[in-house]
TrEMBL record:
Protein name: ADP-ribosyl cyclase/cyclic ADP-ribose hydrolase
Pfam families: C-JID, NB-ARC, TIR, WHD_ROQ1
Ranges for domain TIR: 12-178
Annotated coiled-coil segments of the chain: none
Organism: Lithocarpus litseifolius
PANTHER family with a match to the protein in the record: ADP-RIBOSYL CYCLASE_CYCLIC ADP-RIBOSE HYDROLASE, LEUCINE-RICH REPEAT-CONTAINING PROTEIN
Regions that span the bilayer: none
Domain of life: Eukaryota
UniProt keyword annotations, A-Z: Hydrolase, Leucine-rich repeat, NAD, Plant defense, Repeat
Keyword Secreted: no
Catalytic activity line of the entry: NAD(+) + H2O = ADP-D-ribose + nicotinamide + H(+)
Length: 1015
């Protein structure tokens, strides 16, 4: 229910990735280096798991490398003995080439020449690897190349230096590099570079003092933007940092003790800090931070008390700390004794024109025909960044006549910023205006989808409305999908509401301040004009002040939205008007809703974090209720009777540990679409789901750890397309449990650790496209799967055996994820399944006529195959291999005889950040003359694993269907991806003949499979 300030997130998740040999340096040098980096606020990834030698490198670790700006590789005496470390190093080098990862080697107690030349202990290690990996010597060469490449980079050598000095030197250089890289964040803020240049010199003489500096000026001039740029650029130089935004607004809603809590949590990196009052917070800040060099930004201060409770004195902070304060009121800075004060200037004409044109024309200059008009708009904006952005967004795509009309409106406003900004508001349709006002008053910092759901339940077309507001720069959205709005626009919205009410609180359409609501109640001023109320907990008011005036609520006959956050008002809902559509009461503290609470128009009910044991007794008639959320209600024992809630669309009950009963009436709800019962760990079963549930689209029972069977379905579930049973106690699936799931497209059984068997016949799942059995470590066999399946994730299913069912699937899966733990034999797994598939083709050939005749008689035949397996080594049986994305093979004179079956084609593909990419394979036949050149049809695959082997089989029939009987002497294979980054590292091609398949018997295949399972 809180309204956090939205910030944009950096491109990288980590600033530094540490690679090291644990047994050499984990508890010594690397631990000290990690601590030093952390003290400077450098976000560093260090793997804390001491995994068994030989265990494959985890996906999380690979992902962390991809999400890091820098990698520091600590070479120590025994580094090369660890295949884990060498795999990690190979990945680092790959990211260095592919994503621009910067790598710095550190030579700790080892001679750099021994590492580079692989002599000494490094030579001993590689001798062991060559003996161990005799069948995969290419892997060893990759490791050798990675070592050579990294050791040729500039880095650090400890030699005879003191470790503490050595570490300090590394950290200082890292800070310099991070600062230079972060300079790119200013490129989207026109004019901010010059502001930073003027602001920062104020600090340079204060390295041994605590420096407070204030940034002040009118709203919209760029104070917060400037503070944010400085914070992003320099925070890594400090031992801790915090950016506390929207002080003026958030202190009213949540109290200063919450902001003190945020300050300490950020700087100390401790999310468990709990502050009960501001005096306790002051004492804790003084004691916990006084010896730390910190960077603290306190944004949008409007009262001296706020500064006194967050940064009361300089001696609260360690020497060298920077405290940056932004405010509209310079007098607050004077009162607090802030000597260094900076007032950002309005943008000069050139910068103002660039900023406006970027919004209006998506370039820095005006379009032809708009030059003079643009100059006039810039003139009226008077260099104020917010006005330039807002007006540019308002005018984008409009005709010159519309621009002239807008300019006429500017003249009438005489340059008042409120009136200039209101032009964009006045251009909105009435519904978009209502949405704007609701967001301005209630929903800043809320997730977009949650706001859309609430506003739609209030009767607004919110999805389109929010898009319109974003287009017009009246609203922003960050990388977390949280909505934001500039404080000037918030003030404009609030002012519009006050003007429309004629200055009478009881006539306002929205009430968002506790004191305003209390005034309305105490003075009996409520009217039908009030549409929405937000009552956030405020330490300056007590619930008793409301108790005797609650009857006044009944006069708010048009109240549609009521938000209550944390207030313990016993009778708060007794007088709620019948027309209430949305109730959001976080922390509701009674056992159930009062019996007199009968809002006939209620559509949306959210009682998260409540103390409810049950929602209501017996039956409650709520004929329009669509949404119920009881998540995190720890006392909840059972759900209510839904018999008189016929329009319920979504029920969300997440993390309710004492929930044991779902009322049977839920199985009769014909309009229910989404049923989410995640993390209800006492729940053992669900009631029967009947055919009446014709709208049900998704059931999520994730982490209901006592549920051991699927819900009982009594008839065909026509709409149920997604079923999530992951992390449950299911041991087996009976055929009867799935026979009615004919519309299911996604079935998630991941991490069902007790699951051993799937039904032998899954044909009833005739719409199934995705089957996720990731982490089902006891699952022994994958049965025949419907032909509709396009994706299976069987990663970490260590007990699954390759079978004909897998082979049958391979021609249709996209992608086909990991079947075995990653090891050096992954390519051989693909080889096994391919040859089992080819044996099946040969068996059919002896029974049927030729493939071409069979295709005519039976329609489409299964003559293509592809499989994707986690790994990066092309198997040795691919005869012609090349580095890069293309390879070719010279064809012998008799290559195309009657025993030739087709081509086996293979590629080693690496994706970035676990991104899904499309890969295409093109096979080209090259003849002696241009007339004899032919190109096969494109073959497609989709990769989502990070390192993958893609193995394809192009059949003889499909080849001839494309190239005819043309003669050719060479075959060339080219792999392409759907983005510009090179992903294909190696590829290869082989001719496949019947005798090859004959030699590879089923017995040999099983021997290989058993060998793989033992590995």
């Amino acid at each position: 229910m809180s309204s956090p300030s939205p910030f944009s997130t950096p491109r990288w998740k980590y600033e530094v990735f540490l690679s090291f040999r644990g047994e050499d340096t984990r508890r010594g040098f690397t631990d000290h280096l990690y601590a030093a980096l952390k003290r400077k606020g450098i976000l560093t990834f260090r793997d804390d798991e001491e995994l068994e030698r030989g265990k494959s490198i985890s996906p999380e670790l690979l992902k962390a490398i991809e999400e890091s700006r820098f990698a520091i590789v600590v070479f120590s005496r025994n580094y090369a003995f660890s295949t884990w470390c060498l795999d990690e190093l190979a990945k680092i080098v790959r990211c260095m080439r592919e994503t621009g990862l910067t790598v710095w080697p550190v030579f700790y107690d080892v001679d750099p020449s021994n590492v580079r030349k692989q002599t000494g202990t490094f030579g001993e290690a590689f001798s062991e690897h060559e003996n161990r990996f005799t069948e995969n010597i290419k892997k060893v060469e990759i490791w050798r190349d990675a070592l050579r490449e990294v050791t040729n980079l500039s880095g650090w050598h400890l030699q005879d230096r003191h470790e503490s000095e050595f570490i300090q030197h590394i950290v200082e250089e890292m800070i310099e590099k991070l600062s230079s890289k972060s300079s790119s964040i200013t490129k989207n803020f026109i004019g901010v570079e010059s502001m930073v240049a003027k602001l920062i010199p104020s600090y340079l003489g204060f390295k041994n003092n605590v420096c407070m500096i204030g940034i002040y000026g009118m709203g919209g001039i760029g104070k917060t933007t400037l503070a944010r740029v400085v914070y992003d650029k320099f925070h890594s130089r400090f031992e801790g940092s915090s950016f506390i935004a929207n002080i003026r607004e958030d202190s009213k809603k949540h109290g200063l003790h919450r902001l003190q809590q945020q300050l300490l949590a950020d700087i100390l990196e401790d999310k468990n800090i709990d502050i009960r009052n501001v005096y306790e917070g002051v004492d804790m800040i003084k004691k916990r931070i006084c010896h730390r060099k910190v960077l603290l930004v306190i944004d949008d201060v409007n009262q001296l008390d706020q500064l006194e409770k967050l940064a009361g004195e300089q001696d609260w902070f360690g020497l060298g700390s920077w405290i940056i304060i932004t405010t509209r009121d310079e007098h607050v800075l004077v009162q607090h004794g802030v000597l260094k004060r900076y007032k950002p200037e309005l943008l000069n004409n050139d910068d103002a024109s660039k900023l406006f044109c970027l919004k209006a024309f998506k370039m820095e200059q005006p379009k032809e025909g708009y030059v003079q008009l643009s100059h006039k708009v810039v003139e009226y904006s008077n260099g104020l960044p917010l006005a330039l952005v807002t007006l540019g967004s308002f005018l984008v795509g409009r005709t010159t006549d519309e621009w002239k009309s807008a300019l006429d409106g500017f003249k009438k406003t005489k340059g008042e910023i409120f009136d200039v900004l209101k032009i964009s508001y006045d251009g909105l349709e009435e519904m978009w205006k209502e949405i704007f006002l609701d967001i301005a008053c209630f929903f800043r910092g809320w997730k977009k989808d949650s706001v859309i759901q609430i506003l739609e339940n209030c009767g607004f077309d919110a999805r389109i409305g929010i898009s319109v507001l974003l287009e017009k720069s009246l609203l922003t959205i960050n990388n977390y999908e949280a909505l934001g709005m500039h404080d000037l626009l918030i003030e404009m919205g609030e002012k519009i509401i006050r003007l429309e009410s004629g200055g009478k609180l009881g006539k306002q359409s929205r009430l968002w301040l506790v004191e305003d609501l209390l005034c309305v109640l105490e003075n009996d001023m409520a009217s039908e004009a009030i549409q929405a109320i937000a009552l956030y907990q405020n330490e300056n008011f007590k619930f008793e002040e409301f108790e005797e005036f609650l009857e006044v609520f009944s006069k708010m006959s048009n109240l549609r939205l009521l938000i209550i956050d944390g207030w313990r008002i016993p009778n708060a809902l007794n007088f709620a008007p019948n027309n209430l559509k949305c109730l959001l009461y976080q922390g509701y503290f009674l056992k159930c809703l009062p019996s007199c609470f009968q809002p006939k128009e209620l559509v949306h009910l959210n009682l998260c974090l409540s103390r409810c044991e049950y929602l209501w007794e017996g039956v409650k008639r709520l004929g329009k209720l669509k949404f119920i959320d009881l998540s995190f209600s720890k006392n909840l024992i059972r759900t209510p009777d839904f018999s008189e809630v016929p329009r319920l669309v979504q029920l969300k009950v997440v993390c309710c540990p004492n929930l044991v009963e779902i009322h049977p009436s839920i199985g009769q709800l014909s309009r229910l679409k989404w049923l989410e019962l995640r993390d209800c760990q006492s729940l053992t079963n669900l009631p029967s789901m009947s055919v009446e549930m014709k709208s049900l689209m998704a059931i999520r029972l994730t982490s209901c750890s006592k549920i051991s069977s699927l819900p009982k379905f009594t008839g065909i579930m026509k709409s149920l397309s997604e079923l999530y049973m992951n992390w449950t106690a299911i041991e087996k699936l009976a055929p009867s449990s799935i026979k009615y799931l004919t519309a299911l497209t996604l079935f998630d059984l991941s991490n069902c650790r007790n699951l051993e068997f799937l039904p032998c016949n899954m044909d009833n799942l005739r719409s199934l496209e995705k089957l996720i059995i990731f982490g089902c470590s006891r699952l022994k066999l994958l049965p025949s799967i419907p032909s509709t399946v396009r994706y299976i994730n069987a990663q970490c299913c260590y007990s699954i055996k390759p079978s004909p069912a897998l082979v049958k699937l391979s021609s249709s899966l996209q992608p086909y994820s990991q079947w075995f733990p990653y090891n050096e034999s992954s390519g051989e797994v693909a080889f096994t399944i391919l040859y089992l598939y080819l044996q099946g083709l040969l068996c059919r050939k002896t029974v049927n006529e030729t493939s071409t005749k069979r295709k005519e008689d039976e329609g489409e035949s299964i003559t293509e195959f592809h499989i994707i397996i986690h790994g990066f080594e092309i198997p040795s049986w691919i005869t012609h291999q090349s580095v890069g994305n293309s390879t070719s093979i010279e064809l012998p004179s008799n290559w195309c005889n009657c025993k030739w079956m087709g081509f086996a084609i293979c590629a080693s593909v690496s994706t970035r950040k676990w991104k899904t990419i499309g890969v295409r394979a093109r096979v080209i036949a090259l003849g002696d003359t241009p007339q004899n050149n032919y190109v096969s049809k494109l073959l497609f695959g989709t990769m989502s694993c990070e390192d993958s082997i893609w193995l394809l089989y192009l059949s003889r029939d499909n080849w001839f269907a494309t190239v005819g009987n043309g003669e050719c002497s060479q075959i060339k294979v080219i792999f392409e991806t759907d983005d510009s980054v090179p992903h294909v590292w190696e590829c290869g091609v082989s001719l496949v003949y019947e005798q090859d398949v004959d030699e590879f018997s089923q017995t040999n295949a099983q021997c290989l499979i058993e060998k793989l399972r033992r590995n």
